[in-house]
Amino acid sequence: MGVTHCAVQGCKWSVKFAKAQSAKCKTFFGVRRPDLAKCEKESNHRQSLTNFLLAMRDSEAGDIIKELLHKETAGICELHFKDEGILRKGTKIMLRCGAMPCLNLPKKITPTIARKPPFPRQTVKKCIHKNVDDILKASKRLSNDMKEKWIVYVLKSNLMFELKEENSLVPKIRLVIKVSSVSLHGWDCSVSMSCLEDPEFCTLYCFLKSGVAIVLCQGVSGSSADKTINQHPILHWSETEKKKVTSYIFRTEKCEIVGKGEVCNQCRKHNEQATQSAPVNLQKEQTSELNEWQRLFFTNQIQNFGATQTGRRYHPDVLRWCIELYCRSPAAYDHVRNSKVLVLPSATTIKSYRNQISPQPGLNTQAIRHVEQITTYHRSSPGYVTMDEIKIREKLVISEGKLVGFVDWGEPDETKLATHILVFYVRTIKREISYPIAWFPTNSTPATKLALMFWKVVFEPEKNGVEIYALVADGNSINRKCFLLLSGLKSIPLDKPFVAPNPFSANRPIFLCSDPSIKSICLHTARNSLFSSKPGGTKYMNMGTGDGDILWSHVLQLYKEEQKSPILSRTKLSKAHIVLNPFSKMKVGLAKDTLSWKVFGIHARCFGPVAARA
């Protein structure tokens, strides 16, 4: 059965009324049940329409609007909605989700009066014990367990309950009724009776139970020499020594005696302040075998261990070490910090220090400014410059309205995408200075331009008092050519130091040094050349003995043989050793495994002496 009339109070439109007037009947939008809606938005719309009809119902007239809503035969005609709330598609007329009736509504609608909240009632406590005699009578009705724990004394007009502890010469808790006093281990507390139940309006059992729940503050970590700290003696009987033993709890003058935890708020604040202000000095016996850096690091760790999370302070050298550790492996840094073996700054703090300097291609002005500040205290600081290139991803990025990613040697005409970052790093012997003083996005750096940039970089630290004694770089071909240009020689000398004249100090030459890691660089370079010697490759390796070329197919052949029985594999060859990408080509460990003697011996044993000679 469909909707036959409008359910809005006072609306006359219905199917019968339209037939009587010989007029076109208005469209009725049925109000469906909210619990049968397909989505939450439709359910909310149906609930709003239902509430609208229920708010306008006339309960005195006895209408059946609730029954019509339950049967889904209640509806609202289109005269009560705006045109924006009605969706018309050809001959179909539908109501938009969220549309509410706002037109041709009854002028007088009886508002629903919200029920006033009940007046708060004052609970009248029932008096259980009118005087001390009533409490004394109630103590006789206590259980045997309570009588064994508590001892009752009558002193004049006062009633006293004592809770004794084993091997204690002084009652642990003493409650005196009528004078409202509390004593804990012989210490008369100024604690009000608010922490206890009121014995006048509660049973004696509840009153004594609240007394047992009192927690004694354990005081502060002080000594008797401190005049601002009071001593609380606790007397015990030692069964082993057969004598009286006195232990002390040290309290502040404002100690609350009773706290929510083991230590009250006043004593906790005193401990925190003492931990932050107290200097930490390691004993000479403990630091005899430690160097200066280790002594500084462990002293800083002990200071921060007892401090709060917001009260920790880190030495600049400790921060520099943390940044270096985080850059090597963020996962390892988080593991060390979360294990709480060391107190280290958070990763957010490390990132804020790393992003302190906004890098720009060329000379780093902020690093030069720091060098100037440090050299005011260290007039002459011997140091050296390192030079290296880092592989980066070729990509253009818009940063602060500028395109970043082109080769930038200070020449605006360059439009090539950079593939490497050339970094010049200045470091002193005692590590007072350790900064990247310049960096440049490059593609392929000529040796002549590299030599010119080196002299520009060396000028800045030399001007500020940092004496440069050496240039350290890896031994690739471009760097070797750069060394020859700097030294003015035609070949690298083998019988004397390889030096370059220093234009800033004639008596102090600059030593040209190759990085000790050149062996590892040669190792993965040889492996990469072997990888290019595969069929269809660009290079072929041979030993010049006429035994044939060394091909990548030899390594691939051994890998496939090993994969047939992975349990009995005799080499470390894996998919990472065979399927190389730009990242894995730079891993020395993979190259070492590929070119190992073990691979050579097993290949010779499996595929004959020809491969062995190769």
Secondary-structure-based class equals alpha+beta
How many β-strand runs?
A: 22
For the record, give the distance between the C-alpha atoms at the N and C termini, rounded to a whole number.
95 Å
Tally the structural domains.
6
- The unreliable regions are 610-614
Average pLDDT? 76
Instruction: Round the Cα radius of gyration to an integer and report it.
Output: 44 Å
Lateral arrangement of strands in the main beta sheet: 12-17-16-13-18-20-19
Estimated share of beta-strand residues: 15-25%
Helix content: 25-40%
Number of helices: 21
Largest sheet: 7 strands, mixed
Shape: flat
Question: Which structural traits does this protein have?
Answer:
19% strand, disordered C terminus, 21 helices, seven-stranded mixed β-sheet, alpha+beta, five-stranded antiparallel β-sheet, 6 domains, 614 residues
Overview of the structural elements:
34% of the residues lie in helices and 19% in strands. It is α+β, with helices and mostly antiparallel strands. It folds into 6 domains: 15-95, no CATH class; 132-212; 229-276, no CATH class; 284-352, no CATH class; 358-515, no CATH class; 519-613, no CATH class. Helix 10 (316-328) crosses helix 12 (347-354), helix 14 (447-463) crosses helix 15 (477-487) and helix 16 packs across helix 19 (588-594). The longest helix is centred in the C-terminal third of the chain and has 17 residues, at 447-463.
